[in-house]
Amino acid sequence: MGPNGAGKTNLLESLYVGTQGMSPRTRQDANLVRHGAAGFRVAVAGAEEGGELRLEVRVFRGEGKEARVNGSVAPSLEWLRNQVATLVFTPDRLAVVKASPAVRRSYVDRVLGRLYPARAAIPGAYAEALGQRNAALRRVAAGLASRDAITPWTERVAALGGELTSARASVVAALAPGFSERAGELGLASARLEYEPSEVSADVLDALLERDLARGLSGAGPQLDDVRFLAGAGDLRTHGSQGEQRVAVLAVLLAEAELLAARRAVPPLLLLDDVLSELDGDRRAALAGRLRSGGQTLVTAAARGALPGDPDLLLSVGLGRVTVD
Questions:
Q1: pLDDT tens, 32-68?
Q2: What are the residues whose beta carbons fall under 8 Å from the beta carbon of 188, sequence distance 6 or more?
């Protein structure tokens, strides 16, 4: 709790960095360093089954990034993320509903990595194969290679594209029931998720070869997929109010949180920044009830009266300090 500009968002961002090794708003670590400082350190401590869990992320100029788990250097940031699942809502997350299909594809691929770690590498492998096929198309169009150079990449794109389409379909199918239920609780009736895959196969790509050569890009595949957020007969991207779009993003985050809790046996940490804007009293009460049925959640608000129910712990943020009220 604290006035605008007091640092509430920074507090949530630090928790995300400390548990995930990156910021939810930028991929440039330099943007997180205070002006004139050499770097930063975020340390997070908590309890887990079997004892205490201590996480630390350090970024200092000339040293790169280092993550530690219980004092030992983590072999990778993925190792750090496997210790605590953290989900965040910020106002810019409305882009998942409002922005282009590429944003929704990226979101689904991130969820894929969290829900199905064994399939997490598929989006990257597909992107690499697609890039190689597009490069081969441009070489052939420029007369620098024969059409035979395209064939192996066509086969690779088709195979990985099928895997990625299947994986994304699994993610949307897993999220959809919880999304509809949570959205309904928050006042968004008849909400649902729909996956719109693009057909991809070697035959489809071969049929489009002349057009692809002219454009230098592959004209079929999951790089064209979309996930639609719907309510009633309308697409929330174009027909939803900002309040409805906010509820949709919150609902899909809550649905993912429930799936992660079921798969990992430990609920994720939820960081909800400015989530209460445009939620009326009934929706705030519904949100409070849902949050109390899950794990640990931090919610920011300008005043205590804006919080969804009585918090177990109230933190006041201001003047560069965080105090317990």
A1: 888 888 899 999 998 877 788 999 999 998 888 999 9
A2: 231, 244, 247, 248, 251
Three-state SS annotation for 234-277: EEHHHHCCHHHHHHHHHHHHHHHHHHHHHHHCCCCEEEECCCCC
pLDDT confidence of 259, banded at 50, 70, 90?
A: very high
Q: Which residue segments constitute the domains of the chain, with CATH numbers given?
A: 1-84+295-325 (3.40.50.300), 94-268 (1.20.1050.90)
The answer to whether 157 and 126 have CB atoms below 8 angstroms apart is: yes
Residue carrying structure tokens 């309904």: 184
Residue carrying structure tokens 């199918």: 173
The token pair that represents 106 in the structure block: 């990226």
Residue 303 or residue 232, greater confidence: 232
Q: Could you give the C-alpha distances from 13 to 8, 9, 92, 151, 236, in angstroms and in order?
A: 9, 6, 13, 46, 28
pTM of the model: 0.90
- Give, for 300, the enclosing helix (H) or strand (E): none
pLDDT value of position 185: 92
- Residue 9 is which amino acid? T
